[in-house]
Description:
Layout: H1 13-16, H2 19-32, H3 44-48, H4 83-86, H5 101-105, E1 115-120, E2 126-129, H6 132-135, E3 140-147, E4 152-162, H7 163-170, E5 178-183, H8 191-195, E6 205-209, H9 210-214, E7 219-224, E8 227-228, E9 238-240, E10 253-259, H10 266-270, E11 294-297, E12 308-310, H11 318-321
Parallel strand pairs: 1-10, 4-11
Antiparallel strand pairs: 1-2, 3-4, 4-7, 5-6, 5-10, 7-8, 7-9, 11-12
This protein binds ligand MTE.
Amino acid sequence: MLIKNKGINHLTEAQVTDESIYHQRRDVIKKMGFIGAGGLLASSNAANANPFSFFSKEEKPLFETKPLDFKAAVLDEQKRTPEAKVISHNNFYEFGTKKSDPVENAQHFQVKPWQLKIHGEVNKPFTLNYDDLYKQFALEERIYRLRCVEAWSMVIPWLGFSLAKLIKQADPTSDAKYVAFETLHDKEQMPGQRSRFGGINYPYVEGLRIDEAMNPLSFLAVGLYGKTLPPQNGAPIRLVVPWKYGFKSIKSIVSIKLVKHQPPTSWNQLAPQEYGFYANVNPDVSHPRWSQASERRITSGGLFDRNRITTLPFNGYGKDVAHLYKGMNLKKYF
Ligand code: MTE
């Protein structure tokens, strides 16, 4: 049961994990190098290492996570979705339309070399290479609910950094009103882009209004469960916007462009009457073919896996984001 909504930012690990498991995990995490305080990479050695190579022979801390200053809602019935489910039940149409396709078809996906361009209406455009994705910004762990428009949801511990940090570094001009995101377009590697699975006009594109993008909750994930993102979850870098339906959280991003006008978005182009630009989680606005009033929370399996819970406005993050939509008719701008 939702106990209290006090300025939800993200969930702490303790709030979603049984206490004993929580402490066991903290020990493991310490061994892996998440020392839970501070922020920047500790040393140049650490900075040169792959932060996710947990099989380091020296067993030295490789990097630190930086806890945010937040007051989280206490959602004490919430358990993290087991890693095995997070990485095997996916939507990534570039690798097929069935939930099991991405894990099967994406394993040979090459993420090195990678280039992520930050450009458009900015004074200081820049490009991040593969290694920069893990080193340029201090990494944080954030536990967020992910609510898919298909009415299932998960609770996932992500690793990454806030989108705002990246945008600030590019120094946006006053004409930067929206942010347009683009997934890699590579027909050789992504079979879905050859056959247009699902009817999407590739590359997959998404967008946010600039104030949405600058909200502290908007996150660029480079890892989950303490490891680099598996390809099926959007390696090497993907967006996570927890108050919006999952399709806004675009995977395997190669371009972040600040633009003057609202950019086109893939699902909206495909079926504008079903998928809006905003796509804020809203139990009061049904999808034309199903209700959004409740969701199936994917948990540990068995009977619990059929957990049906009430969907919260803005996926429970209203305290942090509802002000962005003050005065807007959310039924019209769905
Ligand atoms: N990004 C790209 N490029 N292609 C996709 O098909 N699917 C979206 C989103 N990002 C998708 C994408 C949808 S519908 C959802 S629900 C989430 O990714 C799923 O993320 P997950 O597989 O990590 O749970």
